[in-house]
Amino acid sequence: MDEILKTEHLNKYFHEPDTFQVLTDISLSVNSREFVALVGKSGSGKSTLLYLLSTLDTSYEGKISINNMQVTGLRQNALAKFRNDNIGFVFQFHFLLPEFTALENVMMPALKQGKYRRNEIEERAMDKLRQMQMEPFAHKPSSKLSGGQQQRVAIARALINDPAIVMADEPTGNLDTANSEIVFEIFKDIVHNKGRTIIMVTHDMDFAHRADRVLELVDGKLIR
Q: What is the CATH classification number for the domain harbouring 200?
């Protein structure tokens, strides 16, 4: 498999109220079409690491390369474009705009990208909602959807630009067992049938051990 993400000797510090090293010498690689779970106790640095990998946090030592490009050192405008083209995001809180429909929420990253005409974007967005079994709810305001439905819309939104990698931070943290299982099956399909890569932070060890590989952080250090 091709390597799609690589880090070299990442170190991350917080400086308030005192200087504290939260990540220590993190070197790892992730292959394309791989489903990776990132685990660790609260405060271990797993979400901090995900934010570095997703280029949302650029204050660190070391190097990060994604999809054969070194993203470390890129200017913010270039980084924002790279992120929109290459990375999809799924968070514990779905961050849908409540006044917009499910379809409109899914379309937004593609409208920002500006690669396709609006009618093409709408077709692509409907296709993503169809994959999530959410097509019947496409024109419903996102505020009227259940928590599980909202998370599926958020996953569709993350996929609209066909990103190389999907980064997920506790994607099942607010879901019941049934909806967590739906999300897992969607993620498995994204990786094994759609050819994407997923890096997921989770506290759910049962969920984690069903991924292709588990990376564990302890006190900011990668132990496996």
A: 3.40.50.300
